[in-house]
Write a structure and sequence with these properties.
By secondary structure, the protein is α+β, with helices and mostly antiparallel strands. Helix content is about 40%, strand content about 25%. The chain has 2 domains: about 70 residues; about 140 residues, no CATH class. It starts with 7 loop residues before the first helix and ends with a helix.
């Protein structure tokens, strides 16, 4: 190793970046496994018999469980979840409080995606006035949503938001409500409801992991090459100096 001369700066760069790249690769593998388990759970639970709101309140793990509801939408407190795309078109998802008549429980129901092509005008939607029966399923996000800033509480309705937090909404409205969002299936008042389970599938995470590992290997290989190349050049310069002497 005495002939290996990579230099101080390349050594520092490799010592910092290679472990980071390897850790990111393993993190992507971990996320891929989480998504795989999530999708398996989704597939199993979506075919289970639907719960009613009474059963839903006493279910310790309600993620992806189908639910049957009968009640009425609250049109005065609509949320527009921003930055949602379908088929390359920009839009929002419409969420509204829903009062289940059987238990008096409030639930936040996502009625689906609707386009919003012109930001100079508000998105157009309507709300059923009469009580409706609908089918939905409980959506539990795979991780916390990253936000650059908090959505303003007390803003005018309908309110445009970047993340959904039912507990904060119920606290603001002074209501007792269900903790998670429910995503409506096709039915009364539904918009576009072809919901993806996750935004990024397990195969995408595997691909990113391979990229991180490949970059780490390439950087380390370049580090070895430069170290031996610099050593050979240094040895050649010393040999030439000895000849001149």
């Amino acid at each position: 190793m005495k002939h290996f001369r990579p230099g101080i700066v390349p050594s520092l760069v490799v010592a910092i970046l290679v472990p980071v790249m390897v850790c990111l690769g393993f993190w992507q593998l971990s996320r891929g496994e989480q998504k795989r388990v999530l999708m398996e759970s989704y597939a199993e639970r979506r075919v289970a018999p639907p719960l009613d709101s009474t059963e839903l309140q006493h279910t310790t793990d309600p993620a992806f469980r189908p639910v049957s509801l009968h009640g009425q939408f609250d049109a005065e407190h609509s949320l527009l979840l921003d930055n949602r795309q379908h088929d390359g078109k920009v839009g929002v998802e419409l969420l509204q409080p829903f009062l289940d008549h059987a238990t008096g429980l409030w639930l936040l129901v996502n009625r689906g995606w609707l386009p919003w092509p012109d930001r100079r005008t508000p998105p157009v939607f309507d709300t059923p006035e009469a009580p409706v029966s609908l089918q939905a399923w409980v959506y539990v996000a795979p991780g916390a949503t990253f936000q650059l800033h908090a959505d303003p509480a007390g803003a005018a309705w309908p309110r445009t938001v970047t993340a959904i937090e039912p507990d904060k909404l119920w606290a603001e409205l002074g209501r007792s409500g269900f903790t998670y969002e429910l995503r409506q299936q096709n039915g009364p008042g539904a918009y576009r409801t072809d919901w993806p389970v996750v935004a990024m599938g397990p195969e995408k995470h595997l691909g990113y992991a391979v990229q991180w590992f490949a970059m780490a290997a390439a950087l380390f290989g370049l580090f070895l090459y430069l170290g031996w190349h610099n050593a050979g050049r240094h040895h050649g310069n010393r040999h030439e100096s000895n000849q001149h002497v």
